[in-house]
Amino acid sequence: MVMKYLKRYPLENIKNARDLGGVPTLYGKVTKWGKFVRSANLDDVKDNDINYLKDLGVETIIDLRREGEIDSSRESLKRVKEEFAYKNISLAADREFRQEEIDMIISKKLSVGASYRNLIDNYKAIKEIFEVFAQSQGAVLYHCQEGKDRTGIISMILMGLADVARSDIIADYEVSSAYLGYIERYDEDEPYSVFRITSPYNMKEAYNYVVRKYKSFDKFLSYAKVDDETIEKVRSMMLD
């Protein structure tokens, strides 16, 4: 039996699975439980995980990965498509980081937070994702590979739309590297740790970019051509 109020879900084969509910907003409301779930990939999902998600009321799955990251031959993906309304909407560009970009981030010439701008400014994908959110009758689970970067940006936009404080949005982001086991497995000075550790400064930079460039999350979504009705529907899904 699924407990009603769990911040992190104890799924056996899905990492970093968390609910966006239970977070206070700047204006006295609280984000709603059981509407939006964020997680890492569902590549190893089993029947017990699927049953757990269905008990949660999840009806829609949005996979934020590029098509090339997804193994369409997996039985797990076939099961997900059978049990849920599955959408693949890539939030990233259709290519991986080039080596020169990786080197720039490792050498601190480019921050991870700055690299998130390409995700934020992917207006076509943002519009499609929010339209799927608004059309969903039950809960929505959205994920990327590890549930931290692309998933973190969508979580930021959802919480920003609900007027969650920046500090709470940052806090929601930075726990991913602990839940994924990276804090235990990798030293902070290891070169690739910059990609594994969800530093609060990454999300602070992404949040500030939205506010500086678009003034608000409402205006950002409007710029991405998300219509007012969709914006209000998703906001109402986020708030009690």
The major β-sheet equals: 5 strands, mixed
Helix content: 40-55%
Q: Spans with pLDDT under 50 lasting ≥5 residues? A: none
Q: What does the overall shape look like?
A: globular
Number of DSSP helical runs: 14
Beta-strand content bin:
5-15%
Please state the average pLDDT score: 93
- CA-CA gap between termini: 23 Å
Number of E-type strands: 5
Rg is 17 Å
Structural class: alpha/beta
Strand order of the largest sheet: 1-2-5-3-4
Concise structural overview:
Helix content is 48%, strand content 9%.
Notes on the structure:
The structure is a single chain. 48% of the residues lie in helices and 9% in strands. By secondary structure, it is α/β, with parallel strands linked by helices. Strands 1-2-5-3-4 form a 5-stranded mixed β-sheet, with helices on both faces. The protein is globular. The two termini are 23 Å apart.
Secondary structure layout:
Elements (H helix, E strand, L loop, with lengths): L17 E2 L16 E4 L7 H10 L1 E6 L11 H9 L1 E4 L10 H8 L5 H4 L1 H4 L2 H13 L3 E5 L6 H12 L4 H9 L1 H4 L2 H4 L7 H4 L3 H15 L2 H7 L4 H11 L2
Parallel strand pairs: 2-5, 3-4, 3-5
Antiparallel strand pairs: 1-2
Helix pairs in contact: 6-14, 7-8, 8-12, 12-13
Features of the shown structure:
alpha/beta; five-stranded mixed beta sheet; about 10% strand; about 50% helix; single chain; 14 helices
